[in-house]
Amino acid sequence: AEQQDARRWYYATLALEPYLARHGLLAAHDPAMQFCIGAARRSLADPAKARQWIDQFLALTASPTERLTRTDPWRDAASAEVWLSHRKSKAPRPAGECKATTAKPYLDGKLDDDCWKDGSEMPLQNALGELGADYSAKARFAYDEEYLYIAVECKHAAGQFAAKVDKRERDMDLASYDRVSIMLDMDRDFQTYYRFQIDQRGALAEDCWGDATWNPRWFVAVASDESGWTAEVAIPKAELTGERLTAGKVWACNVVRVVPGRGVQSWSQPADEKPRPEGMGLLLFGEAKK
Question: Which letter does DSSP use for residue 109 in this model?
């Protein structure tokens, strides 16, 4: 039933295309809309037509002067889609591995489990403000047949410790605390996403494309001290997708950290306190090691 609902969603997306064309070229070729249409085509087994628009878009925006004067996140996202077809050079967007694991982590926030060893680290860079080396942050991803696992490590300056919340509630107010949001976009439309938020106290919030009434089941352990905090996360696959998690899958993803009054860090950019889905990078699901 879930897959049938998804197919209806994709067909409804494709049905919008002629209506956009009636509103002129600007609406018809809006990258935000075309990435949604392209994701629908890929999901309905028509990747060639999805690629056709991307090639046209890259050709039309190939002015050297334009590239020198500003960064276009949509062009970067389009270039990343092309890169996925050959992977012979450096990816135009951050590309991180989601490591296949057979050993489930014990969620205690210590990040000493086998699934985190030898995994691809995803460092966060300054997106807004100037957070120094004492605010370094990184993330790691792993998966098995049942769960997506995420580890986040955030350092901070002395005196920034915050005690854990006594009791978690749904969609708590995290605005005053050092926090991380994890954005996941399974079909790479760079528009719709699931967002999971965790702050240094272990308080949580989540939304589906801004809809805070979405209340998935997920599990989080947080550990903290005077130098920083860590979070260890397990999200059931069933809360995210009806498809199997297998090697070769590629999602769009970002990890964004907000330190109130100091700045914003992210794995991929552009990023801000509010979601910037067009700035997501690529999460590549890896092969299980033999």
Answer: S
CB atoms within 10 A of CB 110: 14
Domains and CATH numbers, the chain: 2-83 (no CATH), 95-285 (2.60.40.1190)
Question: What b/e sequence results for 177-187 when a residue is b if at least 16 CB atoms lie within 10 Å of its CB, and e otherwise?
Answer: bbbbbbbbbbb
CB 188 within 8 A of CB 39: yes
| Alpha-carbon distance values, 41 to 45, 204, 209 (Å) | 6, 34, 21
Chain centre to alpha carbon of residue 266: 10
CB 177 within 8 A of CB 280: no
Length of the chain in terms of residues written: 290
**Burial (CB count <10 Å: 0-12, 13-18, 19+), residue 126:** middle
pLDDT by 10s per residue, the chain, length 290: 677 888 898 999 999 888 888 888 777 789 999 999 999 999 999 999 999 999 999 998 886 655 544 579 999 999 999 999 999 899 999 999 999 999 999 999 999 999 999 878 999 999 999 999 999 999 999 999 999 999 999 999 999 999 999 999 999 999 999 999 999 999 999 999 999 999 999 999 999 999 999 999 999 999 999 999 999 999 999 999 999 999 999 999 999 999 999 999 999 999 999 999 999 999 999 998 76
211 DSSP 8-state letter: B
